[in-house]
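Cross-posted from the bioinformatics board.
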Amino acid sequence: AQKVTQAQTEISVVEKEDVTLDCVYETRDTTYYLFWYKQPPSGELVFLIRRNSFDEQNEISGRYSWNFQKSTSSFNFTITASQVVDSAVYFCALRGLGAQKLVFGQGTRLTINP
Amino acid sequence: GAVVSQHPSRVICKSGTSVKIECRSLDFQATTMFWYRQFPKQSLMLMATSNEGSKATYEQGVEKDKFLINHASLTLSTLTVTSAHPEDSSFYICSAGTRSKETQYFGPGTRLLVL
């Protein structure tokens, strides 16, 4: 069975602080995909990143960075110099190769205070 | 690219009526569309997977006769909530993907309120 755990239910930080959102996953598949989505108050899920299991290179996109560690089954997401507009619920998700369904974590509600 | 639209964005209806929600992929052909339901402060719950031209595959516990799904074309899937009741009030989100696109792209969601 596949499972995604986002242990942090809510995080609240002051603007300009760095914040890391944790994601731990379980799967028996040797090839799989990991995702992060952002859900702002409007409700729409915004795709942020997809990572293939065979590519453990970390990625940076502006203030966002992702740390993928297969050894610990983790795919953590860091926002540097956070801004109020980063306030949202962030979901980590997993999909096995050949599978259609995404398995979502419970989400982390991030609040950036001015 | 990869834009998915949903209509309506918000609907209020009386108990016992049926409501249809449309999900469209605007700039790509979606061989597969997914319907999710989300309760306040909770994660997304997959209701069904819809492949173009075939019957939808429903998740365990989801009533097929209550939530009718049609995926008649590569750009359109519809979810009809039949004989809606207040407990059907929720946020419904669709997503679309293709065999070549490994990423699912989500629509903006539909807020349904049944009075």
